[in-house]
């Protein structure tokens, strides 16, 4: 490996990098296994040479990267911070010649655990899918070597002997941040415009490829997220018949989320790219089989990523037949239902892209849909179709696909409109709740499924079904709804009808009902009085209790399960006479209920003391020992107990 002299430099635009690289907890493998070369060593520009071995089992990778401007300051700071865990002099704001070998060793080992961004799989072209994660290429164990140039500039203006205890005798160190003049080489005049603090990196590595035998048909997948100013030169084993069959940029994947099933993989040929990434494919006798990839996905798009898929094959170039309608396409005469009026999307790209078959990517077809001018049919930037749709004003839409030779799939005509309109006579949820349905008489009979919901997830147990062909008033069960806003989910389908669904907000609110409170028993033990009972809340909300005697707080109510009980109240401390004991229960929605018990303590003030009567069977007294002796008193006062509701 040749190290460039001081006069060799590459002038590139500075690029600030803000992503975390080596920091964080856990082992080195845990920290590095979910990041890439660019996260570990963020560069301004890089070139990768990837030469696949003849047996397709592995590839030799050589890379060179340049880190310029303030980006290199941030990298030196990050490396110094990480070395604090490994090296006595780490974390002191200086990078030393003693630390260089540690930096190279740590970077090499971390990249060994890092993601390669590359996937290579043989056989039928794919985009991933259920049980198939295409990111399968890995770095070989002990197969990564990182070397650097200019980590510690030898002619730095602030270079000094190392100050850390235990440093070698010839150790030198420089600050991670240069001075304001960025004078990292005193032998170069500032007028020359050279980035004196720049850092250059080299990597030699072996990449393991697990899934290719002969390379006659395979897919190369590449995660281009957050990757710019890089060139990747792939050299495949010489195969004169190999050609590039399809290239796709698939944008928008959330790279912060790793799916467990990969069932959201894009359909081949349907990805819509912005052409920010480019490629060159060459297969000549002199140069062999080369594929040059130039990915470009700015960090500004994070966490929205980009995946590139490239299909290679030795099969003959297929005849360019006209595009055709697929089995998923709506038949001629199909009704497209919108469940709302206005400017709406009546066909999204996921649906449209499944309607056609062609040798080339569906995204490259020109798909035209038209109608009368009042409907204002438009294709949006995401390739979806929108239009102005109004209840009672149906329209016909004509659609076709045209390929690069001008060949057509043929025209299909569909009906577009709003088949139903919904209203309700009550904004307070009833059970059952009435909803009036106005039916568009121009539409065919259809099946409507419906259910109330308070989230985007529809409880299948609540779904009801009805065949409609005229105006209806439907009574919908509100079972399971809790206090708050309630929406109505509708799905319609039928013969020659393109199924659609929508969640309607009709302004319906489920009101809270107050808790129900009952008294199960109460009574005396000497001069101590106590009561208990049960409660429930119709809406399943928590209930809080309060207790008062003659309007004054009298302690706390104890709650166990659906039972409540008062504390033991010594009515000998109260004046003689009748007293109002009030128990109030309020739910989370501030709906309250109360029970009032009138308690007469006059017997406590009689001059003759009556001995307590011991009951024959203690089990009859329940919570309150001696309760049976006061059955007579209970019978006299039971008529004074009453219950009231308070909203």
Q: What overall form do the CA principal axes indicate? A: flat
Radius of gyration: 39 Å
Helix residue percentage? under 10%
**How many E-type strands?**
40
Task: Find the structural class using helix and strand composition.
Answer: mainly beta
Largest sheet: 8 strands, mixed
Domains (count): 4
Task: Let me know the average pLDDT.
Answer: 85
Strand order of the largest sheet: 19-22-23-16-30-29-26-27
Low-pLDDT stretches are 1-24, 617-647
Spatial gap, N to C terminus: 84 Å
Number of H- or I-type helical stretches: 6
Strand content: 35-45%
What does this molecule look like?
The chain is mainly β and 647 residues long. The chain folds into 4 domains: 47-89 and 116-148 and 199-309, no CATH class; 324-417, Immunoglobulins (Immunoglobulin-like, Sandwich); 420-510, Sandwich (Immunoglobulin-like); 516-646, Sandwich (Immunoglobulin-like). Helices cover 8% and strands 40% of the residues. It contains 6 helices and 40 strands. An 8-stranded mixed beta sheet has the order 19-22-23-16-30-29-26-27, with no helix packed on it. Strand 12 and strand 13 form a beta hairpin. The radius of gyration is 39 Å and the shape is flat. It starts with 27 loop residues before the first helix and ends with a strand. Residues 1-24 and 617-647 have low confidence and may be disordered.
